[in-house]
Design goal:
Layout: E1 4-7, H1 11-22, E2 27-31, H2 34-38, E3 46-50, H3 55-65, E4 69-72, H4 79-92, E5 95-100, E6 110-113, H5 116-124, E7 129-133, H6 148-151, E8 152-156, H7 160-169, E9 176-178, H8 185-194, E10 197-203, H9 211-221, E11 224-228, E12 236-237, H10 238-249, H11 256-260, E13 264-269, H12 280-288, E14 291-294, H13 296-299, E15 307-309, H14 313-322, E16 328-333, H15 343-349, E17 355-359, H16 364-372, E18 379-383, H17 391-397, E19 400-404, H18 409-420, E20 427-432, E21 440-444, H19 446-449, E22 458-463, H20 490-500, E23 507-511, H21 517-525, E24 530-535, H22 538-550, E25 556-560, E26 575-578, H23 585-595, E27 600-605, H24 608-620, E28 624-631, E29 634-639, E30 642-647, E31 651-657
Parallel strand pairs: 1-2, 1-4, 2-3, 4-5, 5-12, 6-11, 7-8, 7-10, 8-9, 10-11, 13-16, 13-17, 14-15, 14-16, 18-19, 23-24, 23-26, 24-25, 26-27
Antiparallel strand pairs: 19-22, 20-21, 20-22, 27-31, 28-31, 29-30
Helix pairs in contact: 3-4, 8-9, 14-15, 20-21
Length: 660
Amino acid sequence: MTDVIIFGGTTEGRMLSELLSGKGLKVHLCVATEYGESLIQKDRNMTVSHERLDVEGMKGLIAKKKAKLVIDATHPYAIIVSENIRKACSERGTEYIRLLRPEGMRAGNVVPVKNVDAAVEYLKGTSGNVLVATGSKELAKFTSIDGFEKRIFARVLSLPDVAEQCAKLGFRGRNLICMQGPFNEDINYGMMRQFGIEHMVTKDSGEPGGFDEKMRAAARANVNVIVVGRPPENGMPYDSVVREMSERFGLQIKDAAGARRRRNLWVIGMGMGSPDGMTVEAAEACRNADLIVGPKRMIAPLGGRNTLNEFQSEKIIAYIREHPEFEDIAAVFSGDIGFYSGAKKLIESADPEWNVIPMCGISSVVYLCSKLGVPWQDARLMSAHGLEPNTVGEIRRNRKVFSLLSKGADINTLCKKLVTYEMNDIDIFVGEKLGYPDERITKGYPSELQNAVFSDLSVLLAVNGDPDTVSPMGIPDAEFIRGDVPMTKSEIRTLTVAKLKLKDDSVVYDVGAGSGSVSIEMARVAVNGKVYAIEMEEDALELIQKNKVRFAADNVEVIGGKAPAALKKLPAPTHAFIGGSGGQLRKILKLLTEKNPGIRVVINSVTLETVGETVRCVRELGLKETETICVSVSRSRTTENVHLMIAQNPIYITVCEGMR
């Protein structure tokens, strides 16, 4: 025998089912779709079915389950379904309770309309993009609006049959948004800005259905909201239903409001780790939380009724899901949640039903710079947590660089590199255990700090009084250390690097690197990437290393060996420059495309034979040749009072890309 049947895949229907079954009642929840059933956290007291029932089907379910009570928790706009439930209960002599969802807030520009037809008629007299957030059932009505295929953006459930139905109506591509709600304010706002929305059509699904979040986002984005009115109903709000169940079945529920509301997940930036550095709002959230989560050193001073020593997002989420008794959870992170924080992953992983509340904190960069009395708005912000950043390269080109460190020894490594690259005039400030009683701030030059011992809880600020802010391309040839090794000249080098279209974080192979001039220039463009300079001649390898030090190109790695064998163990490249192939061009290109089918490659040739080989290899390997150009450069030479132009050898530059 079942104590109660609940109809509805709504937020309240799921919450009520889980609450009552968790208190020991035999509950059967009936939802319309298999997807709706997948959202339910079942236990041994709950059964669930997914089917669209008519009156007779509902009567059969009531009889089968021998239920004496039915709660209708369907959507406020599901008029026909509610009428069928009432009729089935009446004919079976079963008690019927209608759970009413309270109306949502009103904010900004609101246009109330009676129904979807009225909303469509209103929109016909307007211009601008429209976000339709009323579901897919009545979407066909919006096709009567001129230019609906481009003007109307439909947001519907992410189900294959729904997407197929919408596509048949003409809603596809960027105008069809398949997502599962409810959505928070920021997602709604971002969507409105992304698609240039001027009007939104929505039903008043109340706060549990995400209506309030829509309204707040629309007010921020200055979007006109057309609200489809609700049909009039009689029933009981969620709080009253919970209270009625508690009294009828003798359940121990602490309060109806507490049972009703969504779980709060406060994601808190704790600042430097001491409660004294938290915002008043964050401290209040921690006091009210029935569970505080975070690293032990941070949560210990907070007290708390229940704590979890954990910092990995996936484990935190799993624990919260496994412990529904915790309704107010505070997850604390060091510094600020928007500055290289694990909070981002936690927020993205949270369940849609949770009320996620981000709270900022004081970041380490703000704290340290305030202690030093220097502004931080012009600092390059970096993190070494799980990364290998090119901190040297950023210090070379920025006046200030702030970096989070994974361990104290990172400071020694960086300072030794700066000494090697003859950058010992950089002011280094190290902040250790900031915010704690044993906080320490140390200043010195790299040579003074390269062997010092620092705590793993350290951050660093580097100040360069003379940063190199000129364009990273077009280095004069005379600035390179020269030898007997051939060097790509400045004009060709600049054009070659430009044709590669490097990004800040590109991974590049320089095959046949010679003196390393192209490697250096590429490394200064892709300053947060990596350049592998591959060369087989010993004297050339030594020259590349000298130029690497000369230009403080810390993101250049010199690889000795002959291509393609020397490339096999290297990470996959995004780009490659081939200045010398040693007769192995086809094998080199084949290996490059195997490592990255979408790679972009620039090949420089001096002889016509090499040009012919390049064209043949590109075709045979199925690469896309984007262009081949011939560059002739002449340089002036002054004799007495006469300028003579001396021609250089013409260079052929071939640009090609892999076909994904």
